[in-house]
Amino acid sequence: MRTKIRWWRYALLTLAALAFAFPFYFMVVGAFQVSPTNSPSSLFPTDGWTTQNFTNVNARLDLAGSLLNSLIFTTGVLLGTVVFGLLAGYALARLDFRGRTATWVLMLLIQMVPFQLLMIPLYVQVTRTYGLGDSYLGMIVPFAINTTAVFIFTQFFRALPQEVFEAARIDGASEMRILRSVAVPLVRPALVTVLLVTFIGPWNEFLWPFLITKDVTMQPLAVSLANYISNVAGSTANANGAILAGATTLAFPVVILFCIFQRYFKASEIGSAVKG
Amino acid sequence: MTTTATRLRTPRRPWWGVQPIGTLFALPYLVFVAVVFLYPLCFAVYIAFHDYIFTAPGVTVPTPFVGFDNFVDVLTDPQVLQSFRNTGVFLVIFVPLTVVLSLVLATALNAGIRFASAFRVAFYVPYLTASVSLVGVWMLLFAQNGLINTILGPLAPSPSWLINSGLAMPTIALYVTWKQLGFYILLYLAALQNIPKELYESAETDGANGRQRFLNVTVPGVRSTTTLVLILAIILGANLFTEPYLLTNGGGPDGASATPVLLIYQQGIQQQNPDTASAIGMILVIVVGLLSLVASRLNRET
Lengths: 276, 302
Known about the structure:
The complex is a heterodimer.
Chain A (H helix, E strand, L loop, with lengths): L1 H30 L20 H10 L1 H32 L5 H11 L4 H15 L6 H5 L6 H13 L2 H9 L4 H12 L1 H17 L2 H6 L8 H12 L6 H23 L5 H9 L1
Helix pairs in contact in A: 1-13, 2-3, 2-13, 3-7, 3-10, 7-10, 7-14, 8-9, 10-13, 12-13
Chain B lengths: L1 H7 L12 H28 L20 H7 L2 H33 L5 H13 L2 H11 L5 H6 L15 H25 L4 H9 L4 H12 L1 H16 L3 H6 L12 H11 L3 H28 L1
């Protein structure tokens, strides 16, 4: 009886894992094929390999330039989140100051406001009022400090023993000094989780940069690839291969990063951050 | 959470707090929230109640207060009503599929099996990957001459999935379920780890089989997470944009997979009517709020 239950469990998980992994397999294999297959009999090709698809898609949307834009956009968000998110998280967890409860309530409220509602006013604000259309700053601003990351930092600092901080205070260290010499050196485990969680936001974001970048040389890869899929794909030879090549270029930095750092992507931490 | 911390400190707590520098530390985040959330939120409400148009920088034109006119326009627009119906179709498919599949898979993963981390990687990767990439893949898989139709052969739907008005929205729902499931599995895994082992042991002693333990221990044990999953799923369903924009080529066929956010984009940015677009946004948020409230009530009582 027991072994039977176990067997079913593995069968179920394997089936699900195959369903999750198959489109990725299809994407990578298709990206390197002269003509990506549509028939199940040729799902495991042995010949017809090529890198022409990457050349084709590159001719239309400048892969390197788009990747660089994605990278700048993502780095800006990561910097803002790590610096200001860490400060806010530390203060919320460890310092007693006026406005702490208000900040906490605001954080909970923000998680309930969908970005899409703010799309129109933010678009007006950023492109018309601040004149930041087609700029990296304009892309970064709405995502500059990831609220989930602030939650993760807060939970992390809260979980540290109170004595560590009390000892430093008794020794007469200033709050600035405690932050620099006690809190920041301890933060590394939370930092990796925060970087992973924050990275996927701007890297994968489509709607916002799509709204504010009309200049193709400023578009992150998600935007230029989407434009390629919806507008120009029809006019390329082997359009399917080119789409899959572009999709692979956009997807794989995240997939690889995640596979390397997956042990830091813990259910308990992220779960509690989402719940607040 | 603050009570224990304050009780330990001196009874005379200054108005600015014991460590007023905390306000300085939190200030950048507060400014960010004010600029990117609070101000636009108020601005969205302002736009929705006025006759607002885009102008060139520096030009001021009157934007008269028009009361509920924009809301009346929106609620009598068949396109808008259809987009809300489409979202309903999406939720009816997406929510039950997500709750059942993610809870079952999380339970299977949680039982201390081998290769758990390999399975987890496979489940999370679609969630972490850009929707634009994956939509590209699904578009080819579900195309007229795509792999899925080739496998189905004579059973393939006609017209094909993404250009069939009855199947476009269900296909999007299937795609989003697949893409997001890893995140919900993650939430359920966190919840499962908090169910005391003793509950399962005593259920086993009472002679409950695996299915009974799942229904009587696991399902009630993760109820608060199920409420969270329901609410997050409703929010997600209300915010679909990339999928109808790319997968069904702008909400096609003939608006059968148009979503409210797609209309906000089309009316607000493309047709330059930010006022009606903001009204759609506000109605959407109110509907989402009500649905979330219903979801949490229902889940509390049963």
